[in-house]
Amino acid sequence: MAAEEPVTSPDQHAPTPVKAARIAGTVVIVMLLLMLFGNHEGNVETLWLLGTAGVLAAIMIIDIVLRRNGLRD
Fold it and tell me: Do residues 60 and 25 lie in contact, with contact meaning Cβ atoms separated by under 8 Å?
């Protein structure tokens, strides 16, 4: 029930471990790129792997730029 939950401000929550998230994102991108050297025959899988790795890399780059400019905590 919502009435029983304590009211908290965003400052009271634990901060996001940014370094761990960046390391995990980098590991996932490397793993996706390593999957290119598999036993698949078509190019559809290659496009999906490259596209997914590219989107993850873009998200990480945008996050780094926003944090550097002070637009994100």
Answer: yes
